[in-house]
Amino acid sequence: MLMEFIINLLELMSKTFLLTFANIFFWLVVILVSFQYRRMVNLEEKMFGVPKNNVLRQTLISIGFGILGGVLASFLLIMVGISLEQVGIIYLWPLAILLMLVNPRYMCFAYAGGIIGMVSTVMKVYSPYLPQTGLIEGLININVPGLMALIGILHLTESMLIALSGHIGVSPMFIKKDKGEIVGGFSLQKFWPLPIVGLITLMVPEAMELVQHGMEMPGWWPLLGVSQLTAVEGQKAVFMMLPIVAGLGYGDFSIATPPRKKSLRSARNLGWYSIMLLILVILSNYKSELVLLAALFAPLGHEYLIIKGNKDEFSRKPLYVSPAEGIKILDVLPGCPGSKAGLSSGDVILKINDCVLSSRSDLHQCIQSEERYFKLYVKKSSGAVVKYEVNMNSFPKKLGIILVPDPDTPSYVELKRANFIQMLKKKMNRRKD
After folding, report:
1. Cα-flanking dihedrals φ and ψ of residue 208, to 5°?
2. Contact at 8 Å (CB) between 150 and 224?
3. Is pTM, for the whole model, over 0.85?
4. Alpha-carbon distance 265 to 309, whole Å?
5. How far apart are the C-alpha atoms of 13 and 15, rounded to whole Å?
């Protein structure tokens, strides 16, 4: 019985899901995603002289995983029973954009949704004393548990996408820490366009053909009981599936942890945050006072994750710094001799042929010879020394590797907090110059 219901639901959902690709906003989000990857590739080229990643490949990967995430988010939104017109979307986006002016990372529904949820909850208590305006009534009528459930589901989807693809196409970076030390690391930047099927609620006459040909939902639905419906005699609530578009993004740095491990850790923490938020939503059905706690937890819990994640990463010993002997590889460019030979990030090259290496200048001198075949003695992260044979016929005098930075490296990224207005002023001043 349950499987039959799920199959019928997925069949109905798939018909609406396909309509998302006819929505111009989906392709606008795809274009925005490609622009972000173009910016990353330009930074790679500026820093290393050659880009590691390909814009088209990165965009296609994001579309593929975005579709997967959209299917998951759509199924969860429908099963939970969130009606989009009840959760204050009209207030959510403007506030998120305003928060972006304070700090770009605040353009997240966790912050805007948490603020709106708290305001709505407090206004409900003091509604008899508030003036009856459209804005105030709209805020009071927001379904706060539904809004919190929406935030939880979107972040749960994001955690899955980070776990599956957060480590793909990471950008090598030279990063200047607070104390002035320049270390190697990776920028983990991913963006996903999400085609989503959402629900809106309509009250229609029971005899209407739309109702007769609809799908009857079971008595246990919605799962979290977050829909606010008012029964009207002779009418029935109808949930209509609506194709909508969303975008998710993930930004992080990895300097003390390999990118794969860092993305999995971030995904795990974000997943627990999402589950805890959804648990608070469930509990608020039994004790309404917990709605305010859920609204508080949404932004504060999210901020805690970011602060703790950054503190943990930057307080640990950097992984990509010059070793006591040999030269360490930060990253390997795809398709180059080093990649074909099997070199990987974190390897330490001790010798090339009979040439002992202690600096990048030693490497440069060794590969400038007319030889095309080299024997590399490489120390792996496990401590084992492995011999690699490299054929450089296709790329004379180029291994295609990026080494960890020297202390006097001229090109690096300095992590500074700047809001949107400050960045805009900086760009305006550059144009004047």
Report:
1. -65, 140
2. no
3. yes
4. 9
5. 5
Task: Give the dihedral sign, CA 399/403/407/408.
Answer: positive
Give mean pLDDT, residues 178-203: 87
Q: Write the CA distances from 144 to 86, 109, 198, 395, 430, integer angstroms.
A: 9, 13, 17, 60, 44
Please list, in sequence order, all residues whose beta carbon lies within 8 angstroms of the beta carbon of residue 196, skipping any fewer than 6 positions away. 20, 70, 73, 74, 77, 243, 244, 245, 246
- CB neighbours of residue 110 within 10 Å: 25
- Cα gap 259→263, rounded to integer Å: 6
Residue 210: both structure tokens together: 């739309």
**12 φψ region: left (φ > 0), alpha (ψ -120 to 50), beta (else):** alpha
Domains assigned to the chain:
2-315 (no CATH), 327-403 (2.30.42.10)
Report the SS3 class of residue 426. Answer: helix
Rounded CA-CA distance 72/409 in Å is 44
**In b/e form, how buried is each residue of 249-268, taking b as 16+ CB within 10 angstroms?**
bbebbbbbbbbeebbbbbbe
- Is the bond preceding 94 in cis, omega lying within 30 degrees of 0? no
Q: Two tokens at 239?
A: 């949930």
Could you identify the residue written with the tokens 């690709």?
A: 21
> Which residues share a beta bridge with 83?
199
Structure tokens of 270? 């974000």
pLDDT tens, residue by residue, 37-74: 999 999 898 888 888 999 999 999 999 999 999 999 99
Each residue's pLDDT tens digit, 372-394: 788 999 999 888 999 998 887 76
Which residue is associated with the tokens 């995904």?
Answer: 267
Encoded amino acid at 108, one letter: C
Task: Give the other-Cβ count within 10 Å of 41's Cβ.
Answer: 18
Amino acid at 169: G
DSSP state letters, 247-313: EEEEEEEESSS-HHHHHHHHHHHHHHHHHHHHHHHHHHTT-TTHHHHHHHHHHHHHHHHHHHHHHHH
- CA 41 to the chain's CA centroid: 18
Pair 321, 256: CB distance under 8 Å: no
As a whole number of angstroms, the distance between CA 97 and CA 114 comes to: 14
Radius of gyration, CA atoms only, the chain: 26
Cβ pair 289, 122 in contact under 8 A? no
Closest to 156 in 3D by CA, of 10, 302, 260, 304:
302
Report, as an integer, the average pLDDT of 252-269.
94
User: What is the Cα–Cα distance from 358 to 38, expressed in whole angstroms?
Assistant: 35
**Residues 216-220: contacts with CB under 8 Å, at least 24 apart:** 218/5
Please answer whether residues 17 and 71 qualify as being in contact, where contact means their C-beta atoms are separated by less than 8 angstroms. yes
